[in-house]
Amino acid sequence: MLIGGEWTAALSGEVFETQNPYTGKTWALIPRGGEADVDRAVEAAHAAFNGAAWRSINATGRGALLRKLGDALADHAERLAHIEVRDNGKLLTEMLGQTNYMRQWYYYFGGLADKVEGAVLPIDKPGNFTYIRHEPIGVVGAIIPWNSPLFLTAWKLAPALAAGNTVVVKPSEFTSASMLEFARIFESVGFPPGVLNVVTGFGAEVGQRLVEHPLVSKIAFTGSETTGKRIYQAAAATLKRVTLELGGKSANIVLADANLDNAVKGVVSGIFAASGQTCIAGSRLLVDRRIHDEFIGRLVAFARTAALGDPMLPTTQVGPVTTKPQLEKVLSYLEIARSEGAEAVLGGRQPSDPELSGGWFVEPTIFTGVNNTMRIAREEIFGPVLSVIPFEDEDEAVSIANDSPYGLGAGLWTESISKAHTLPNRLQTGMVWVNTYRATSYMAPFGGYKQSGIGRESGQEAIKEYLQTKTVWISTETEVPNPFVMR
Question: Catalytic pick from 84, 225, 245, 380?
């Protein structure tokens, strides 16, 4: 692990295994950090935050280091992608796209670092010069999920460092290898020791201590809403600031006037890409009843052609789910769906191909006969499972879409320019994609409403999540007035 600029084993000396989801076999050993290791890392980050080496680097200098990191990551993108595929089983084509694109977050926030400006207030109190400035928070604890480890790290690390904070990263115990490799690249760029620290291990042993540590000022977390709620509650004990990017049950809405071929591709992208393991998965398909049968026919025919297999191969379109516990969870929801009366018109089981028997695969699955009260329509499955719900008109579509504890994303397919502009305003979600799906950018804020989280990542709003505001009052008067009267 990387702690205070030094590579170190866990104090316990223990390690744990990490498996390749395609083969189900162990391929790496990871240090099993504990509370004492977290303490070491947080203290190192705290010392770095207050130390001369980091504080002497001004905002322009921080930006230059971030841009240099982006350049270094470009040189190592392919290697990092291969490591991530071995760790999380997602397609090499997808992970290459992420490891090549994630540098843009470091470029963007590197450029934004010295654009954070305060203000002089035209204060209403005579004899005072008053201004505001924005300052870093301190030590940030970043807790990273297993589905896109380095990509989602960039969303947190880039704005945190641009703002002048120091960071302790806790990667998922299922996908830690790429984070350790990333930390080696980070070290080569020239950041002072302790600015980035990486502690690997399990949530109860590492994550919980990181959230509770009194020297940690902010937690940035991506993961399930169940864990997010526990983090929120624990962080409240020390009044930590939090950014929580949690789950979703996003509705992908297909209107009768949509281009059906494009909508089919968008629906497939929304739920079967990445084996459904994205928080923005369009796991609820809402279809106008007038086109329901035709659309489902086209959708099933297209989804049936999806090639399952080795995620390292360019011909593979659907890989395994990332963890064995997640496989078991997805399989349990297939049984729940059947018990609720839903009909699997595609998939609904593990593949029978013997070449896939060692991996953690689930067939792309489409359930019809679903209503919005069923568990498969309300609970996040995080797998390649789609629930189809018909609607009568646009008002009902909006009502169904909003009838969810989540509010992360939504999709809308229509050829009407009027509906493209008016319907998104009625959807209670942080993001809406019209005639596309799963588009993200370093420029665009990412986050949700309701139980899908708190705060925003990416875009100019993200750096505000890592800053605090200070007001400075300077008296220009030569004599202190009556001290018993509030100024």
Answer: 245
